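Shift notes (night). Ran Aminotransferase class I/II-fold pyridoxal phosphate-dependent enzyme while the centrifuge was going.
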Amino acid sequence: MPVNSFDDYPMTWRPNRAMLKFPIYISLAELLEQDILNHRIYPNTKLPPQRELADYLDVNLSTITRAFKLCETKGLIYATIGKGTFVSPNAALSNTYMREEGDFIELGSIQPYYQFNAIVTETARAILQRKQSEKLFEFGYTLGQSHHRQIAQKWLLNFQIDVLAENIILTSGTQNALLITLLSLFKAGDKIATDIFTYSNFISLARQLNIQLIPIASDRQGMLPDELEKQSRLLDIKGIYLMPSCTNPTGVAMPLERRKAISSVISKQEMLLIEDDTYGFIMDDKINPMMTLIPENTVYVHGLSKSLSAGLRIAYLVVPYHLQQIFIKTTNNINLKIPLLNAEIMSELIASGSACEIINKKCMLSEERNKLYSKYFKVNTSVNPYSFFHWLWLPAGVNGYNFEMQAETRGVRILCSDRFAVGNTSGISAIRVATCSPATIYELERGLQIIQKLIEENQTVI
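Came back to this:
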């Protein structure tokens, strides 16, 4: 088809052919990425059919296919069989939460009861008064010092994780552990299965490393095993990322039978599981982590930022023996070592019993705040009563990002579902409400009242 026949033809995206450079498919992918990131193409926009775009640019169809594939790997677009290719809902939206401080009721970022930092402060003060405390400012070991790992080993027994201390790596928080895992085990173009709504920082890491996330359908018990197996066979999925104890952002806790079914698929399809157990400490029935079911297929991440201290940035990364050397090599190569002082404070909190005290107090506060939340909004029965946040579905037709902006103008910060979305989530919107973050329960109630009123106003408009 001649190029000029498109002069009056309606197209949702018209790349400038004069700007294309060799290799064309990479240049075209860059043009599409820039147009998406600069908001020249809006989220959920349907892109022109590949053959139509090839005719318009006078290039081979395979050039368009390769360009789209690059953008799909980055999470910028998604394809729906029989419907076409669309711009991802969060393609131009930051998955991380960075806003200036102000006079807001914070229900967006998870600030896990900072009032208990006083206990951490007392512990730190006592440590710094010890003899030879200056050694804690020296360069640390890759795995953490032996006594730090021994304390970690004992602590993890509380979560049914029984491993050798040598299999534990101390990292600077959960996100640091996830980065080490992705760099160690995956490469650009690899596919990792996730929930349709998943941890926003994991989305950002995968996008940065050009690892493609594959959304898997779920129900109130978590990811569906049949869907995981089906997609794994179709797409050659290498890994899977799950937060079975409390999925961030939806709060779903996966029961034992579902964990067993998912583990069976992982083992059968020879996938690698990244189990993020950051919220394992709120599980009152102590369901075994999935690592206990498939230890050789699992990298287990146990973050302590939410349970004990966000500022110390410590997580325990449990790695199967056959993968340990590659993890140590990665950690050494990028120099991701933890400050010894942070490790010492965290270890002392655990050894002294203060860690259990902090967790018990946080759970008590969460239970009180969640009862208040249920006064205003219906609570999913699958959500843990000690959860630090809630997933609130918005009325049909309400745009999540617009609702987030409206809430901010009323003095409340929340996060919309687009920030956690993988793949096609058009037509469904929700917000994550971090009930743990306000300094007082009175501030929380004011925030919930504002959200409730805003929902009512949006329903009236619709």
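The chain has a mean pLDDT of 91. The radius of gyration is 24 Å.
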